[in-house]
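Regression test attached.
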Amino acid sequence: MSKPRLIIDCDPGHDDAIALILAHRHAEVVGITTVSGNAPLDATTDNALMVTALLGVDTPVHRGAAGPLVGEPAHAAAVHGESGLGGVERIDHQRQAASDDAVGFLLDTADEALWVVAVGPLTNLALALERDPAWGRRLAGISIMGGSTDIGNVTRVAEFNIFADPEAAARVFDCGARLTMCGLNLTRQLRSNDALAERLRRTDSPLAQFAAQSFDDLHDRIETLTGVREAALHDPCAVLAVTHPELLETRRQAVSVELDGKHTRGMTVVDQRPQPPGGATRRGADAPTVNVAYKIDAETAMGAVVEALGVKNRE
Ligand code: BDR
Ligand code: CA
């Protein structure tokens, strides 16, 4: 079977880097677009270039938006370090961004067989929709790491990627594309821990060594923040939703992004009420248009991740 074709829109970011590595193993990655998010745009773009150099691929990297549609950029240095890839040894490389027009690249590359996997704030995607409201419908689909059906991580109810640009997220959730949402309720099921980092450290592969350093830093930071020395592998889940859809259980539901609430701005409000049988929509409810992911086969998913990092079976 041929590999799915996709663009990754990202803000690397520890888990974004793992998502990039996973995608290059299991998909045809036609391009990477970067956005301000975990770190400022210069840093996320540098990190995307460095990961492609580490992979030895020439996937084009296009710089995107330096901040959200409204307000000031939010970053996540407490989780990823100021550079976005704290604690990771930088490698020398000659790679440079292919352009600073991520939006043009997203628009020009769209076709019915192309997926966009969006694992950062959704600013670039919203700007593409501003220029072509039909853009989302010209794609195979958009797989989003963002939001939550239950608790948040930046606020009680808001997840970082949506919180960092809620106006952009609202446009994307409303654009009519085939959407999959991998929220925190899902991504917290796929977790790294010290045993995984140790296994990677013992693996003779530059990707495994990189990932071991990345996980060590991430585990230190998450332990400081939460007291738990484990991290959710958020962004790889959105890649797996395209490359290994059989590993996820989804339900088709309506999702709206809260833009106003004093305590709820950036929340994904998911209609989890039972729907009438036969595919009808509950009276007065919005049409269920998003495939909301609820469950992942974490063991098989982790197998795909470690394999992409160069770990041989049973190593
Ligand atoms: C999301 O926010 C970022 O910090 C991660 O890279 C992930 O995309 C999780 O809330
Ligand atoms: Ca991310």
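Expected vs. actual: identical. The chain has one domain: 5-275+286-308.
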